[in-house]
Amino acid sequence: MAAKLRSRNHEVAVDASVFDRINSFAARYPARFAIVVFAAINLVFAVLFATPWAAADGQATPFWDALFTAVSVVCVTGLSVVDMATHWSSFGDALTLVGVEVGSVGVLTLTSFLGMVVARRLGLRQRLMAASETNVSRVRGGVVSESQAIRLGDIGQLLRLVIISVLTFEFALVLLLLPRILLEGVPFLEALYQATYWSFMSFTNSGFSPTVDGLAPYATDPWMLSVLMLGVFVGSLGFPVYFVLLRNLGNPRHWSLHVKLTITGATGLFVLGALVYFLLELGNSESWGTLDPGQQVLQALFMSTMTRSGGFALHDLSNLNQSSMLITDMLMFIGGGSASTAGGIKVTTLAILFLAAIAEARGRRDMEAFGKRIPPDILRLAVSVTLWGATIVAVMTTLLLHITKEPLSLVLFEVISAFATCGLSSGVTSQDMPTAAKALLSLTMLIGRIGGVTLAAALASRQRPRLFSRPEERPLVG
Q: Where are the transmembrane segments (predicted)?
């Protein structure tokens, strides 16, 4: 009896020791811990997708196809190397729906949830982790100089809001989509499944389709396309925006600078993108350029929305004019709002770069917007995010060009779509792709969802205060 008790105590001590080590690692390197957890979740989904139960034909899916699908699902991207509507069984479809919900909340927020479940409470470490999702500068440690849209005391409310807002928006989308699908003559249960699937994929900005025909039956339907655009646009704003708007919906004066920049930037890009698409595709019979004017406007608005990370497509994108392809690359690279279901370098990052250029052109020392001054360290962060993104895209494009031998415009399009977790495809992604290409695109999607700053913080050594500063000297710029 005594021996059994000692053995049990030893096991408890070992478990406690392992837990303490994990806890210590998470405390010292929160960004690395979050990446490890997120990568592990992707791997778990890959293993599940590879099982015979996940495939419609009952055969095991090749591991690299399963891994690509898992990463695309959990990173809410939308690229696929198999037909998502026919390849997977009911179990596989369930994995897809669960995966996009898990991945949509973000890397650091997801880690915070797991920490809260393990610890049965939301401690300071979990609060800091979740706060890093709403403001990536926190993952680097030290003082965050600007006022936050989400304070540490609000993190518990934010995590609850994430769940509530996702479920509420998606339920509302289901109610809006269901009647239209029923009008197509689809049986009620199948229509309910399709409405739920479309709802999940639009709000999480994933872009997968539940049917072989995809959006073809609704290609000119204003109601269906408008609801999907609404879901994608709202999903791309970000949870910090919802948090502030729900508390101050009728009082814009109390909106934070982040909320104002996000809404202004997202709306501006949406309108400007649609206008550019409308003009560039005029007369293009391979896309929508020869439809009636009303349809041309609708198609341009839809395309402008989907390039922001939505991923739904009504036309073969390789048939767009090359000028439109370039604009699509730009819009995908920008992406949506911070701490949202969208990818890219984010709308606020672009806004900060423009504000810095305007301040420099006017000879002003500080960046200003909506009556607020923006500290210079935010500009440094914006430049870092942009350069990290551009570097990743350039490296991956070079490698994929060498592997696939496809044209530059198509490969660049595919890489940016993967990095920005957008999911639009030029046709390069397929089951016949070389394994190396699938692995590289999977890595690109993972890096894009993690984010450049979080990745940089994970790769950097632990920050230590410096007790000296080096002599200052100004190099020539421009």
A: 33-56, 94-119, 158-178, 223-245, 257-280, 330-358, 378-401, 440-460
